[in-house]
Amino acid sequence: MIKDEAIDPAPLHGRTVAIIGFGNQGRAQALNLRDSGVRVVVGLRPGSGSEAEVRSAGFDVMTPAAAVRDADLAMLLAPDERLAAIYDEVAPGLRHGAAVGFSHGLAIHFGLIAPRPDLDVIMVAPKGPGTALRSLYLEGQGMVALAAVAQDASGAAWPLALAYAQALGCGRAGVIRSTFEEECVADLFNEGAVVWGAVPAILQAGFETLVAGGIQPEVAYLECVSELKLLAGLIEARGIAGTAEAISNTAEFGALLGGPAIVDRAVRGRMEGVLADVRSGAFVQALSDEAEADYPRLRAARQKARAGALEAARLRLLKQNR
């Protein structure tokens, strides 16, 4: 874990960083960099819905190609499936010996982009959403990040990656040296099999099971969904072992019996299948196919979630609590 005191900020002194994309990570990183004294320019595709937000944040709106023209480091922070096209657009304008950076290893690890050999290729991946990255920075805290170098043309790519992580505020919490492959595989596995895949599915299934068993939807929501925030806070503060000790004997014993019954060998086997799909590139191919078709499965899933009984119960509770 590399902290601020071990990081030299000099590699970013007097340098210009082009942030390409102003979404969850792009906005937070641009603001944190600027507040750390780094010169930042922002590149957006023409007609982007983020133009007004960029201007209100005090940045000029430029095309990606224009933004990278005078940049020492171009951070490509658009969605993964768009990065290859964006790189092809900006590559001719990247000066010889510049650096290109990412906050996720997918595009490089799976060969969607083949950077020019004269470019440094770095990754700084904060381990959380951009909203939290920004709020922690403003509070004087930081978010742990993984950092890596895929191509070190200059011989100074690693110090640049560390300086960038420090400017984001991540050095306050710590930077872990990783690789594009490790970050990518671990992140995609988590998204598919754990926090973003399995956990919401478990919450939904638990809610539906209780409702089908005659429990009021609002009560089922409170039991199966609302308590997740409390659990996350306990795990963050005490760890999983400490969390078990902090709850009632009834809850702990219920978890002891129910947890292994749900997460059994079959579930672990399916998790291994998710990991295998990530490593083989099958997931990335499916993502590319989904993007090529204009995201029909994602659109359908979002619509189904919005129209479901769980969401209706959430909205009723929210209305009553106002």
Automatic annotation (TrEMBL):
Residues 1-178 form the KARI N-terminal Rossmann domain. InterPro entries: 6-PGluconate_DH-like_C_sf (IPR008927), KARI (IPR013023), KARI_C (IPR000506), KARI_N (IPR013116), NAD(P)-bd_dom_sf (IPR036291). The keyword Oxidoreductase applies. Residues 179-322 form the KARI C-terminal knotted domain. The keyword Metal-binding applies. Mg(2+) 1 binds at residues 187, 191. Mg(2+) 2 binds at residues 187, 223, 227. It is an enzyme of class 1 (oxidoreductase). Substrate binds at residue 248. Pfam families: KARI_C (PF01450), KARI_N (PF07991). Its EC number is 1.1.1.86. It catalyses: (2R)-2,3-dihydroxy-3-methylbutanoate + NADP(+) = (2S)-2-acetolactate + NADPH + H(+). GO terms for molecular function: ketol-acid reductoisomerase activity. Keywords: Amino-acid biosynthesis, Branched-chain amino acid biosynthesis, Magnesium, Metal-binding, Oxidoreductase. Pathway: Amino-acid biosynthesis; L-isoleucine biosynthesis; L-isoleucine from 2-oxobutanoate: step 2/4; Amino-acid biosynthesis; L-valine biosynthesis; L-valine from pyruvate: step 2/4. Belongs to the ketol-acid reductoisomerase family. This is Ketol-acid reductoisomerase. It comes from Sphingomonas arvum.
